[in-house]
Specification:
FAD/NAD(P)-binding domain; about 425 residues; 10 helices; alpha/beta; 6-stranded mixed beta sheet; binds flavin-adenine dinucleotide
């Protein structure tokens, strides 16, 4: 059913009895043209674009739990395309452009809100870095504005400009950045993919990958064997475990990242703000809760919960930036598993196994990548070759040395 003002009115008049489930609860078939492992945003977006752009409709998305139960439903919902390196910038800008038309495309309200993302700087050298990044963005046709302290004050007069441990000197603003409702993105892609014939199969864990003669033959699952010659892995924090089923060892480490939501308050933070002297980012949800986070916990784990020292560290950074945060109560806090790559940039590529494709290495930033990730991964799977947009997000860059090290932090996944 098309969602529109007319359908809403019709259903209101007949007591909302006509709504159908947004997607079918599909049972696995014995074989598919392509199987996507992982029903997060990336897996569902991949299936959608495979069907929409490449005409492959005999596809299944296999999800071990319920769709959106991983990082897709656990993130702090920030979207932006403020990258420096060309290999990243063209990819994240493609994503931003897809976000801009996503709700019309999916016929679903994903609550995409371009409320602006402001990265604060606190020293002259940091200003120079941000100026360089902003110039790089503008050379790619992407919006960027370098604000001085007065410019930031105009937007957020209540920030602690002088008394913060590191005084705020200005910020790099991308007005087209903002937030989107993470669950709605998952549901929107699921519904749109389902309408194109994609089977979304929940409670179906992939436990083995059958390979013969160096090529994928199918996947073993908790709901039986499924034959396919094309399998795409989009399992985020579980990448190392699932890739190991095909005998692959990847340049990925799994780390915990926590998120926090305060009690609801009246509108206060009408954009996204990031603190440049620590790692802290904050926005306000439409329900009123302040949504914020910081660094990863810094040790390898598959547990979707965090540790107390990072809670203290995140709140300390928050208090340095906006002391009024101390008057609020934190209502909810949780963790997700990040697939941290060795250079902080993602991988969307083929693998040494024919018919096995990899989508991984999303670090802190895979939510904003969701549309372009699905779009590029679908292209890579359908054509058996990357698109120009993901041509630098290669797996072999870790062997050739052509890294995409946005932060210049070296092969230290906990620092990206
Ligand atoms: C606390 C937190 C805050 C974040 N904040 C942001 C942010 O503000 N902006 C941003 O851009 N990014 C952010 N991220 C990162 C972003 O959420 C992820 O990079 C992105 O969601 C990963 O892609 P996904 O949605 O497909 O992953 P997921 O939703 O994790 O999907 C992977 C799916 O694979 C399934 N799976 C795993 N193993 C198997 C198997 N064997 N068989 C079948 N299914 C399997 C899992 O159950 C899971 O549902 C954040 C992440 C966290 C945890």
């Amino acid at each position: 059913m098309e969602y529109s003002f007319v359908s809403l009115l019709r259903e209101a008049l007949r007591g909302h009895t006509g709504w159908r489930p947004a997607w079918r609860d599909a049972a696995p078939k014995p074989a598919y043209d392509a199987v996507i492992v992982g029903g997060g945003g990336h897996g569902l977006a991949t299936a959608y674009y495979l069907a929409k752009e490449h005409g492959l409709t005999h596809i299944a998305v296999l999800e071990k739990s319920f769709i959106g139960s991983g990082n897709a439903g656990r993130n702090t919902t920030i979207i932006r395309s403020n990258y420096l390196l060309p290999g990243n910038e063209r990819f994240y800008e493609k994503s931003m452009q897809l976000w801009e038309g996503l709700e019309q495309d999916l016929n679903y309200n994903a609550m995409v809100s371009q409320r602006g993302v402001l990265n604060l700087y606190h020293s002259d050298s940091q200003r120079d870095q941000y100026a360089r990044r902003g110039n790089g963005m503008r050379l790619h046709g992407v919006d960027a504005e370098l604000l001085d302290q007065a410019g930031v004050r105009k937007l957020y007069p209540w920030l602690d400009f002088a008394n913060a441990r590191f005084p705020i000197k200005g910020g790099l603003l991308q007005r087209r950045g903002g937030t989107a409702r993470h669950d709605a993105v998952v549901w929107g892609y699921a519904r749109a993919a389902d309408r194109l014939g994609v089977d979304i199969i929940q409670n179906c864990e992939v436990t083995g990958i059958r390979i013969e003669g160096g090529a994928v033959q199918g996947v073993e699952t908790t709901r039986g064997y499924i034959a396919t010659n094309k399998a795409g892995l989009a399992v985020a924090g579980n990448t190392s475990r699932v890739a190991a089923l095909a005998g692959l060892r990847l340049p990925i480490e799994s780390h915990v990242l926590q998120a926090f939501v305060s009690e609801g308050i009246k509108p206060m933070v009408d954009g996204v703000i990031t603190y440049g002297a620590g790692h802290f980012y904050i926005s306000q949800s439409d329900k009123g809760g302040l949504v914020f986070g910081g660094d990863i916990d810094g040790y390898n784990s598959y547990a979707q919960r965090g540790s107390m020292p990072v809670v203290e560290d995140v709140l300390e950074s928050g208090m340095a930036l906006m002391p009024r945060l101390g008057r609020l109560r934190v209502l909810r806090q949780w963790g997700g598993i990040m697939d941290m790559s060795m250079d902080g940039s993602p991988i969307i590529d083929r693998t040494p196994v024919d018919g096995l494709y990899l989508n991984a290495g999303w670090c802190y930033g895979g939510f904003k990548a969701t549309p372009a990730s699905g779009w590029c991964f679908a292209h890579t799977i359908a054509r058996d070759a990357p698109h120009f947009i993901n041509s630098e997000l290669r797996l072999d860059r870790f062997a050739t040395g052509a890294l995409l090290d946005e932060r210049g932090a070296g092969a230290t996944p906990n620092l990206h």
